[in-house]
Every structure is written in structure tokens, then in C-alpha cells.
Specification:
The protein is an alpha+beta fold. It folds into 2 domains: about 150 residues, Cytidine Deaminase, domain 2 (3-Layer(aba) Sandwich); about 180 residues, no CATH class. It contains 16 helices and 7 strands.
Length: about 375
């Protein structure tokens, strides 16, 4: 994702920019943004208080991204923020990374740890208003979004299916149960046709969301079941790029698909979010995927990448193209449909209640290469 150039010339500008770098307005958080030659390389966030050892991988990550300077912002009380800012500042200095600014923000005021002057940095703090900031106006003008809080981001991936979506899913499942069994006449040929149609549906759906459209319930249910076939899912994964359509499509399916069908779509949302550096969204998408299928391999792989603070560039550099997938996997075979058959063999569980328990928060932030 390319973030437009935002000139940050004051602490208030930094505080206005941070919500657009992490995707929501943070609270009780520690945020570190690293950059090189005025270009933002990554932003990462932790819940406060930071657990011992959680920030130890920060400097290696910044070095991988060729970061030379950073600013640090803590949100919350001085008793909570100051120890975390001090610990991160020590790590950055020891790693040869310059700290250009370190701030604490609370109740519409900020305090600078870098400023020792009572004239410009009074003891009672300096008022700021992100709503009136030039940086906020520029970010909104360029289509950037900062949700009100972390809960809003989590709700944006929660299940919101309904009776109509469930009926559509049942219809699609009934149709697909008529697939021929492996070993039967022309089973491989039928599997090849199914895979080809699934690959085409992935591309059509991306085009639809690219133009602002949306799948109907039956189309969403069918695509969600197509993704149970690894070759179809991997096509969608290989196609991930900076377009908003990837986030829009896979977020929509993550919200609408039946919980037992959601792991592939939620994992693709996580991959798309990671590609764009939206690590908070990535973490929440992985929560949905692993709640549906705790052993889902793609979600486990991406969770390991998030836990170890790997750079999104590592995904972009290593993903095969669709043509390479064809070469690696060969011609479709009936056995490819086995994961789909396993899903179809299970009845749909009772719908989740509207007041279903929300999972615990996952630390995250945004890692991206963009002008600052």
C-alpha cells in the first residue's frame, strides 16, 4: 500500500498521523514508527503494559528494514507509558537508531520526553486536536481510514451472517455434494473443471470488488467453499497486491461466511493485510481463521510471521505466481477436492448468538514502505 506523503513537522502532526499508520485511534498503547531518508518503513504497536521480552525483536526488525530513525508514542498514564518509552528508547539507542521524538498522549494533551523546555513543553502538557489537523485532512482526502478504536477494527472482521446467507450456503452445499467420488469415471476431469471454475471465480470476484461491487449471498457462499481447495486458495494468495479489492473481498467473506467455512477467507484477509502492512487487521483476521480451524496451516504460518515480526516484504518476495503454482502442483486431480468433501460432510452448526464472546486482543500495527 502506498501512503501519500504526509509532512510531520511537529508532535501534533505525529499524533495526527499515528491513527492512520496503525488503522485505528490507539489507547493504552505503545507505537514505534521507523523510517529511512524521510520514508516510513514500518509502524508497530503493543498493548500497554508491554510484557517482558515483547520488544526484544524490535531492533532486528528495524535493521532488516534499513531503519535509521524512529519516533515513539505512548498512549495512557505516565505510570504506564514512561517505563515502556524508556525501555524502547534504550533499545533504539543501543541499536544505533536515532529517536527523533518520544511522546506521551492522554486526554487530548501530549508530553514530550525529548523536550526539556517548560516554555514549549509545559508540565501540564500541550493540548492537541487531531480532528483539526492538516495531517488528518490530507489523510482523509487520500482515502486513508482510522477507525475509532481497536474494538471497531475487531468488529470489522466479526461474523455477521444471517438467515439469507445460511439458506444460500445450504443450497450451494447441496449442489456440491453431487460431485463425483474419487476413482469414478472422469473424476480427475471433473476436478479439473471445478478448479478452473474456482480460479475464474476468484478473479471475477476481485474485479467485482475492484469496481465497488459485492457478491450476492450465493456467490459468496460458493467462493467460500471453492477456497477449501488449496489450489484455488493459493491462486487468491498469489494474486494479492496493493489493491483495496483484496481487503474488501476477503473482509466481506470473513464477515459473511459460516464460521466453519471461514478459515481460508480469513487467512487470505490476513495475507492481504500483511502485504499492505496492516498488522493489527492481520492479527484479528488470524483470530477468526484459527477460531474456525485451530490447525489451519496457512493461518499458523502467517501467525508465526506476525509473532516474529517478519517484514511483509518477505511475503511479497517469496510468493509464487499463478503460473508457477501450475508448474509446481501439476494437473488437477480428484484428490484435490478432499478438503472440500470434508467441509461438505459436516452439517452447519447453530448460528452464533449476537452477543458471542469476543477474543482477546492481538498486538499489531502497520508495517509499510511509504513517504512520511
Amino acid at each position: 500500500m502506498t501512503i501519500p506523503k504526509l509532512v510531520l513537522s511537529s508532535p501534533a502532526d505525529i499524533l495526527a498521523a499515528v491513527p492512520y499508520l496503525v488503522g485505528f485511534h490507539p489507547a493504552d498503547s505503545l507505537v514505534v514508527t521507523g523510517f529511512a531518508d524521510r520514508e516510513v518503513r514500518l509502524t508497530t504497536r503493543w498493548d500497554l503494559p508491554v510484557a517482558s521480552g515483547d520488544i526484544d525483536r524490535l531492533v532486528p526488525l528495524l535493521r532488516r528494514e534499513a531503519v535509521t530513525a524512529a519516533f515513539v508514542v505512548g498512549y495512557g498514564s505516565g505510570a504506564t507509558v514512561t517505563p515502556a518509552v524508556d525501555a524502547v528508547t534504550r533499545l533504539l539507542h543501543a541499536g544505533g537508531i536515532r529517536v527523533t521524538e518520544s511522546l506521551r498522549a492522554e486526554g487530548g494533551r501530549y508530553w514530550s520526553y525529548s523536550c526539556g523546555s517548560a516554555t514549549c513543553c509545559p508540565a501540564e502538557g500541550t493540548p492537541y486536536d487531531t480532528g483539526r489537523s492538516r495531517v488528518t485532512a490530507e489523510a482523509v482526502m487520500h482515502g486513508l481510514v482510522a477507525l475509532p478504536d481497536q474494538g471497531s477494527l475487531r468488529r470489522s472482521v466479526q461474523w455477521r451472517g444471517g438467515a439469507a446467507m445460511r439458506r444460500a450456503t445450504l443450497r450451494v452445499m447441496t449442489d456440491l455434494r453431487a460431485l463425483p467420488e474419487p476413482g469414478g469415471p472422469a473424476a480427475d476431469e471433473r476436478a479439473a473443471r471445478f478448479v478452473a471454475e474456482g480460479l475464474a471465480r476468484v478473479r471475477r470476484a476481485l474485479g467485482l470488488y475492484d469496481s465497488g461491487g459485492r457478491l450476492d449471498d450465493e456467490g459468496a457462499a460458493r467462493l467460500g467453499l471453492d477456497l477449501a481447495v488449496v489450489r484455488v486458495r493459493d491462486e487468491a494468495w498469489a494474486l494479492v497486491d496493493d489493491r483495496d479489492a483484496h481487503i474488501a473481498l476477503w473482509r466481506d467473506l470473513t464477515r459473511r461466511l459460516e464460521p466453519g467455512h471461514v478459515a481460508p477467507a480469513a487467512s487470505l484477509l490476513a495475507a492481504a493485510a500483511w502485504h499492505r502492512g496492516e498488522c493489527a487487521l492481520m492479527g484479528m483476521a488470524l483470530e477468526r481463521a484459527l477460531a474456525a480451524d485451530p490447525g489451519y496451516s496457512m493461518a499458523l504460518l502467517l501467525r508465526q510471521a506476525l509473532t516474529h515480526m517478519m517484514s511483509p516484504a518477505m511475503l511479497r518476495d517469496r510468493m509464487p505466481t499463478p503460473e508457477e503454482l501450475d508448474d509446481e502442483m501439476g494437473s488437477p486431480r480428484a484428490v484435490w477436492l478432499a478438503p472440500l468433501r470434508a467441509v461438505l460432510a459436516r452439517d452447519l452448526p447453530e448460528p452464533e448468538p449476537d452477543h458471542a464472546h469476543e477474543p482477546e486482543p492481538v498486538p499489531g500495527g502497520r508495517q509499510t514502505g511509504s513517504p512520511s
